Amino acid sequence: MNVLLVYAHPEPKSLNGSLKDFAVKRLEAAGHQVQVSDLYAMDWKASLDADDSPGRPTDARFDPSLDSKRAFEEGRQSQDIALEQEKLLWADALILQFPLWWFSMPAILKGWVERVYAYGFAYGVGEHSDARWGDRYGEGTLAGKRAMLIVTAGGWESHYSPRGINGPIDDLLFPIQHGVLFYPGFDVLPPFVIYRTSRMDEAKFTTTCDALGQRLDDLGRTAPIPFRPQNAGAYDIPQLTLRPEIASDQSGFAAHVGEAERDEPGVRAPSAKARAV
């Protein structure tokens, strides 16, 4: 497989840096081709602005979406954006690795998404009608590829449990996994989350690497999270709300995750243990 690892941590000697180095070595040892986008080392520009659309009229009002669309269609994107898009098209699997800062990804990684996910590349694709509302949420430019998060968190695992003070980890990661990854078509694997990072000793690091190594070994065969595809019948279009008979006893994020055995024959749902790793 071709694997793109997008890495967002400013300190190479950090836990994240060690895990990134381990992941690359493990993947390459298994025969995968790996590219790493180390955003801090690249001095990645995080802000989406008019400079991302070279050649646009300087006296025109900047429209982030429409200027992104025109630059993509006309081949006028800034080079750093175009190179990252090429990596995404090359990759069979994408790994986003980051520390959980203030309940989300670091700003530099959010900026990577905002700039690389151009209109016409990651969104705004496909037919918009009464029958379909674009190729997204299970379809799109990046459909058929796999994606996984590697996330470090300072808090205890119990802090991110269903009744934990920080909220369930599945809810915190939902906007990234369902929005950033499933939206343009990725099959999203259960995340690999490391808790209590300030208490990482040599023994815990060894067991963490063992578990991460197994997840990387299984990258091509782990069952994805069974998010409900937008255009497969579960949603009324164009309202894009779940049909009344679908998950009628649920609301919020959980309603958009089906049970693979029932909703998608032939796809195995991840076990509770796998979801908790």
TrEMBL record:
Keyword Oxidoreductase: yes
Region (Disordered) location: 257-277
Alphabetized SUPFAM superfamilies for the sequence: Flavoproteins (SSF52218)
Coiled-coil parts of chain: none
Start and end residues of each Flavodoxin-like fold domain: 1-205
Domain of life: Bacteria
InterPro entries noted in UniProt: Flavodoxin_fold (IPR003680), Flavoprotein-like_sf (IPR029039), NAD(P)H_dehydrogenase_qn (IPR051545)
Keywords: Oxidoreductase
Record-stated family: Belongs to the NAD(P)H dehydrogenase (quinone) family.
Protein name: NAD(P)H-dependent oxidoreductase
